[in-house]
Design brief:
This protein is α/β, with parallel strands linked by helices. It is 44% helix and 16% strand. Bound molecules: phosphoenolpyruvate. The site of phosphoenolpyruvate has 14 residues, from strand 8.
Length: 250
């Protein structure tokens, strides 16, 4: 059985004052029925990891560089994230693919760097609205999956997040059938590439406008093992509502 995962992506939001939300979450969920992860901006990773030390909430980064160190002004290495207290890192988020031109091979190199530092990689995939309307969703997801995920992964080191670009931060959510189709496709591709045991152990999260009000129905879809949550992870109360729904589905 795959343990469900609720992951929060704070994006470029939050200062020291926001750590109160993370602490409220940890206090409300001392023994959650699923894994919990918060990915704050890089400036908060160390402080959040210290604040949540000993709690059930893990801390992750939102990106890392593919190289271990060197002349890369403004970037953060996987080792630095781990040193700051992160156990996970989000890679290939559509905002990074769009804003920073990250290709599948960039994401793959970053994922290799993360895995070599012992971080759990949360690799994001997702089609644009144009791609969906052109009937290319599965082709795009298949290409991203193949290109972004390196060999040698396992259910313990890799999490996939399916995040339709057009659903992120928009309030628009695919139908349950559309979510199920893509999650089943990703599962089949993982099993074909990595074998049934590994392919069935990797968790596949849905992301894109998940809220307390729509979480339960999304978590009822086959091969949805949790959520990657943006806006609704910023406030402990909203995120707890989503976690409650995930625990009920577990
Ligand atoms: C995200 O940033 O990964 C995301 C899914 O955002 P939101 O939940 O705000 O749509």
């Amino acid at each position: 059985m795959r343990r469900k995962l609720a992951a929060g992506n704070w994006k470029m939001n939050g200062t020291g004052a926001s750590l109160a939300e993370a602490e409220a979450l940890a206090k409300a969920k001392p023994e959650p029925g699923c894994d919990l992860l918060l990915c704050p901006p890089a400036t908060l990773v160390h402080r959040m990891a210290q604040a949540l030390d000993g709690s059930a909430v893990a801390v992750g980064g939102q990106d890392c560089h593919a190289k271990a160190s060197g002349a890369h002004t403004g970037d953060t290495s996987a080792e630095m994230l781990r040193d700051a207290g992160a156990s996970h890192v989000i890679l290939g988020h559509s905002e990074r693919r769009a804003d920073h031109g990250e290709s599948d091979s960039d994401v793959r190199a970053k994922t290799e760097a993360a895995l070599s530092e012992g971080l759990i990689a949360v690799v994001c995939l997702g089609e644009t609205l144009d791609e969906r309307e052109a009937g290319k969703t599965l082709e795009v997801i298949g290409t991203q999956l193949e290109g972004s995920v390196p060999d040698g992964v396992s259910g313990a080191t890799l999490v996939i997040a399916y995040e339709p670009v057009w659903a992120i931060g928009t309030g628009k959510v695919p139908t349950l059938e559309q979510i199920g189709e893509v999650h089943d496709f990703i599962r089949a591709r993982l099993e074909a590439r990595f074998g049934a045991e590994t392919g069935s152990a990797v968790r596949i999260l849905y992301g894109g406008s998940v809220k307390p009000g729509n979480a339960a129905e999304i978590f009822g879809v086959s091969n949805v093992d949790g959520a990657l949550v943006g806006g609704a992870s910023l406030k402990a109360g909203d995120f707890i509502g989503i976690i409650d729904a995930l625990e009920a589905a577990a």
